[in-house]
Amino acid sequence: MLLQIVETILVSLTGGLLFRLLHLPLPWMLGSLTAVMLWRLAAGRNLLWPVKIRNCGLVILGYLMGSSFTIGTSLQIIKQLPAMLLATSSIILFSLVIGYITSRRTGISLATGIIGSVPGGLTQMVVLSEEIPGTDLTVVTFMQTLRLLSSVFIVPFLVIHGLSGNAQQAIAATMPSVNNTVIQPHWNQLLFAFVAITAAWVAVKTRMPTPFLLGPLLGSAILVLIGFKAPYTPPFFVFISQLSIGAYLGLSINPTSLENWKKLLPYILGGSIAVVFFSLGIGLLLTRLHSLDLISAFLGTAPGGTTEMGLTAVLVGADVSLVTAYQMFRLLFILFIMPILLRWRFKGVAAK
């Protein structure tokens, strides 16, 4: 077991270092993801990456994202709730059209095509597919995996090598903080660490979606909003967060279990890319409606997920709080509204 974990670490570090040397976006996450996935498939190795290590990376990322909240950005979020609803509804409707086209062209069921195309979390959509009659769990997993991979590779590349070329965004993991420090820095670090860990535990107990990310995020945000100064986070912790999340995602992907992947592949990739650029268009519209920069608006609407887009926002110096708010709004909308709509739409499928 220990040797398997060590091998996974070495493979992850190799992939991350290669991506860094090639100046690719999110090198330690995408590099480790790619290296672990390819090494396991090509060499047939039985790698191991405990979920507890991944959870530690999510806690760090949750703190980074939550500590970026300020009173000013919170007021902006409340002001932009109609825009969030507009952006979320538009992207979901566009994804439903993509799912319908995919189902008609490939012969998979409509339920499978829709659930596989909706830009929710990979885990959440796979779990939802088990509750909707007429869905193929394997196909949904494959579609959501490719959608996720397309997003986490294309969106950071566009942001870092395209959109940020004309914007003076600092690629650094610096977090904003409030001016009134309530307690001393030493106790401040202990307080934020305690709250982040406790909030993660509470989120797990209350069955919150992605609890190890959202729990520390909410806990850290509350501390900042009531006046505590967020302590500086060394870049090493950002590196640990990327590596631990990337290695876990790499082990979660298993494309060999699908039989008709060649027929599905072009439609899934084409649909995923179309949704990414549709999100870019929605982001551009948001910059006209509100005083948002294009990078923050795009990352907020992009279909990559809260974890991946939040980490990208941290690294490029975007407005992390707004990016997180838009991503969380879409995630919660999908988790709470979509299951009701899908169950209503496909309630009679199983009987036919």
Automatic annotation (TrEMBL):
Annotated InterPro entries: AbrB_dup, AbrB_fam
The UniProt keywords, alphabetically, are: Membrane, Transmembrane, Transmembrane helix
Q: Which Pfam families is this protein grouped with? A: AbrB (PF05145)
Give GO terms for biological process: regulation of gene expression
Domain of life (superkingdom)? Bacteria
Does the record bear Transmembrane in its keywords?
yes
Q: Which GO CC annotations does the UniProt entry carry? A: membrane
Per the UniProt record, which residue ranges are transmembrane? 26-43, 55-77, 83-101, 108-128, 148-167, 187-204, 210-228, 235-253, 265-287, 294-318, 324-342
What name does UniProt use for this protein? Ammonia monooxygenase
Per the UniProt record, the source organism is Pelotomaculum propionicicum
